[in-house]
Design goal:
Elements lengths: L3 H22 L6 H21 L6 H26 L6 H21 L3 H30 L2 H25 L12 H64 L1 H27 L5 H29 L7 E4 H11 L1 H6 L3 E6 L5 E4 L1 H18 L7 E9 L2 E8 L6 H6 L15 H11 L3 E6 L5 E8 L4
Parallel strand pairs: 2-4
Antiparallel strand pairs: 1-3, 4-5, 5-7, 6-7
Helix pairs in contact: 1-2, 1-7, 2-3, 3-4, 3-5, 4-5, 5-6, 6-7, 8-9, 10-12, 12-14
Length: 465
């Protein structure tokens, strides 16, 4: 015949090993939940050991202390699962419930000296705790879709059912009201305890490993999505720059025609001077100087166009925003003159240097300027006010126009890609500009100015090195 106290000692040995195995298996994922679960498992092992030693140790140790330890142990594992669900419970509440349950247990044991009530009361706690652990495991399964949590729920549901059967058999007098009583009931409880300990521990480890794998997969998926979105954004930004230059081709042709015409005139003047006798050296020098000056103007214009249209390589460099806001304005010289736009500058004496991609930041400013010019097409006063200054460790560029400002529908749709009020627009200019600002750890905000018109604020981290 199987000696039940010895079996309890064997079971306690298993319960000692399982938390250690969990602790080792989850050495890189040791959260508070793991700590509560493992410490609870060790306390449960000590409690079972005291039950197994009941024939040779004082009664109060094998009953009161043993039950108190095992109840605290199960309660700690409840706390561990609630932490997985991010639903922590106060430790004081747990202690209060266990102490209250223990006092009632002692009343049944010493006051009434009723073994049926005493044993039944102890089993009710375990059955309820196992059922609650099963419920929490199911909640983890539903919340995180972890199959191991479902296995954990099955294990503890089975343990709770076995304990309920034992309670009913005690109530009807079919078995002795003692954990160490010989018989099939004690054997079934111990067997279910082994399953809960071993299979439950494996399932608990599986919950954390499975959750970690899901998080890593989600992180990889998100990283791939962001990289793909970034590549697409770069392509759209490049297309937008090319489309913008296509729309400005007439303006550029006009800008080119001026210095080229001047070069031709100076060259003709130099030719005439050389043909005349005697040579007028001063006139020749002026003609050559004019050719050089206008050739440089042409080269600068070509450089601006090339720098704007070339694909960005994310080469961050020191950029003086005071110079950049004026350089970008030169790209729109024809549009500014054609629409009778006047720019007014307000620069602080302090340096306004940032680290960034010059092409991308130029694209933001070009979009802002073009929007401002188009917004003032029906305005009598056509001015664009540009200020650059520092605010703490940030550099802020403000661009305000004298147009009608933003109406309600425009305010609601600001920054949404492929939403535009222009018949020839892609509707991505502002969306791209905001993405570029965020990429530079900055912000791009558009509001209505107090004095009328739209106000655009580009806020970027200052480079103080």
């Amino acid at each position: 015949m199987i000696h039940i106290p010895t079996v309890y000692l064997f079971l306690s040995f298993i319960y000692v090993l399982m938390p250690i195995a969990i602790w080792i298996a989850l050495n890189k994922q040791r959260s508070r939940a793991v700590i509560w679960w493992c410490v609870g498992g060790e306390l449960f092992a000590i409690g079972l050991m005291l039950v197994g030693l009941r024939p040779v140790i004082p009664t109060w140790v094998s009953y009161t202390v043993a039950n108190g330890l095992t109840w605290f142990a199960v309660s700690m594992q409840v706390v561990g699962l609630r932490l997985v669900l991010r639903q922590p419970i106060p430790a004081k509440a747990m202690v209060f419930v266990v102490v209250l349950w223990l006092l009632v247990f002692e009343y049944f044991r010493l006051g009434l000296q009723n073994s049926h009530l005493r044993f039944g009361w102890a089993l009710i706690f375990f059955a309820g705790a196992f059922a609650y652990i099963a419920y929490l495991a199911r909640q983890i399964y539903k919340t995180y879709e972890l199959r191991n949590a479902q296995v954990l729920a099955w294990m503890y549901t089975g343990g709770a059912l076995v304990l309920c059967v034992r309670i009913m058999r005690i109530a009807f007098g079919y078995t002795e009201p003692d954990a160490t009583a010989q018989g099939v009931d004690s054997f079934l409880v111990i067997f279910s305890g082994v399953l809960v300990s071993v299979m439950g521990s494996f399932a608990f480890v599986g919950v954390f490993i499975e959750r970690s794998a899901k998080r890593e997969m989600a992180a990889i998926t998100e990283r791939v999505r962001q990289e793909e979105s970034f590549r697409l954004g770069e392509q759209v930004a490049q297309l937008e720059r090319q489309r913008t230059l296509g729309m400005m081709s007439y303006s550029f042709a006009h800008e080119f025609s001026q210095p080229l015409t001047a070069i031709l005139m100076d060259a003709y003047s130099a030719k005439e001077t050389l043909a005349a006798e005697p040579h007028n050296s001063n006139a020749l020098k002026e003609a050559i100087q004019g050719i050089e000056t206008n050739a440089n103007r042409t080269r600068e214009l070509v450089d601006r166009i090339r720098n704007f249209i070339r694909p960005s390589q994310d080469a961050f460099e020191k950029i003086n925003l005071k110079m950049l806001v004026q350089d970008v304005q030169h790209l729109l010289t024809h549009d500014i003159r054609k629409n009778h736009i006047k720019f007014e500058w307000d620069f602080e004496d302090e340096e306004s240097v940032v680290m960034g991609d010059k092409v991308q930041l130029s694209q933001i400013l070009l979009n802002v300027y073009r929007n401002a010019i188009q917004a003032m097409s029906h305005s009598q006063i056509r001015k664009i006010f540009v200020s650059v200054g520092k605010q703490g460790d940030r550099v802020v560029v403000r661009v305000r126009d004298t147009g009608p400002g933003l109406d309600e529908s425009m305010r609601l749709n600001i920054g949404m890609p492929f939403v535009t009020t222009k018949s020839d627009g892609l509707g991505v200019g502002l969306s791209i500009s905001q993405s570029i600002a965020e990429k530079h750890s900055g912000t791009l905000a558009i509001t209505n100015a107090k004095d009328g018109g739209a106000l655009v604020e580009l806020n970027l981290p200052a480079d103080n090195s």
